[in-house]
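user: can you give me the structure for this one chain? C-alpha cells are fine.
assistant: on it. calling the predictor now.
[tool input]
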Amino acid sequence: MSGAVKGWCPGAHRPMMSGDGLVVRVRPRLGRLDARQALGLCALAQRHGSGVIDLTSRANLQIRGVAEADHAPLLAGLAALGLLDASAAAERRRNILVSPFWQPGDLTERLTRALTAALPSLPELPAKVGVAIDTGAAPLLATASADVRLERSAKGLILRADGTAAGRVVTEDGAIPALIEMLRWFDARRTPERRRMAQVVAQTALPRGWQEVPPLPCADVPDPGLRPEGALIGAAFGQLDALALADVLRESNAIAIRVTPWRMLLFEGGALPRSGPFITAAGDPLLAVDACPGAPLCASATVQTRALARALAGRWDGALHVSGCAKGCARPRPARRTLVGRDGRFDLIENGRAGDTPCRTGLTPEDLETGVL
C-alpha cells in the first residue's frame, strides 16, 4: 500500500499521504454511526492517528495522521466496528450522500438501501462521481457535490442529472434502474477532460424526457441547535478533536451521530453540550468560513490557512474560503471571497472558486488582517 498518490479522494483501503501522515476516509452507511461505532472511531483516531478527525463536504469522516505501520491495525479496528467495506473497489462505488434527517423506513432510507444493493450493477466511474439521495420534504443537498440526484418535485420523485434544472419523473421501484441507466449514459460520454456529470451535460444533450420537472425549492442549510431529531453541532473548519468528540457524545446521551456535508454533526436524540470546542449557536461567523488544513499538513499548500481564517471570520460579508492551493479542496463551489495560497502569499478571487483568475495577487496575511482590501 502506498499513500503517495494525490488528486483523488482517499478511502479507508486506499488512503492519501499528507503532511501529517495518512488520511483515512470512513464512509458511514446512511451517514450514521451508532454510539458504539462513534466512540470506537474516536478511540481508533487516538490510537492509530493524530487524534484529529475531519468532516468532509461529502458527509464522510477522515482520520488524520496515521502512520503507514498503523494502517493495517486501523483497518482491522474499522472492520470490527462495521465501518469498512470489503474492498477498495466496493468502497469506491459506495459514494452515496444522503439527507441527514432521514427517518427509519422512510423513502430516503429505502432508496439508499436499494442503491447499495445495486452497486455491483454500476459502471466503473471516476472516483469523485457520486449520488445524492435528497428525498426529504424539501431538498437540502443542492450545494453538495453529486452527479446524479434523487429529489422530490411537485409531481413526486424525480431523478436529476447534476448541472440541469429539471429531472425525470420516476417511481420508487423504477428509481434505481433509471439511476443506473443515467450513469451508464454518462459513462459512455465522459472524457479525461470531462469527468463529472455537469461537465458532460454542458456539452451533450440529455435524452428526451430527462429534464421535465424541477425539484422543489431547496431549503436553507439548518443552523446549529436543537432539532426534533437531536442536537445539531458545528465544528470550525470541519475539524474535530477525537477526545473532545467522545466526551460530548457521552455527555449528550445521544444514541448515534449523523454526518452532514455542512461541517456539522447531528447528535441523534442528544442534548447540546454545556461546553467544549463546538459551535452550538446560529450565526457563528466561523460557519461562513471554509479553510483546508494548509501548510504544513498538506504538501500542496505553501501557506498556513486556519489561523488567518479565524482572524478574518465575520470581518467580511458573505462566504469566505481560505485555500492552501488552487485545488480548493475545502470548498468546490464559489465563495464571495476566496484566498488562495501561492508561493507563500495569497491571491484574492471574488465570487469564484480557488482555480479561477484572481483580481489581486501577492497579498500577505498582514495585508489581509490589517484591512488592505
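assistant: here you go. The domain at 285-369 is CATH 3.30.413.10 (Sulfite Reductase Hemoprotein; domain 1). The chain has three domains: 16-90+229-268, 102-201, 285-369.
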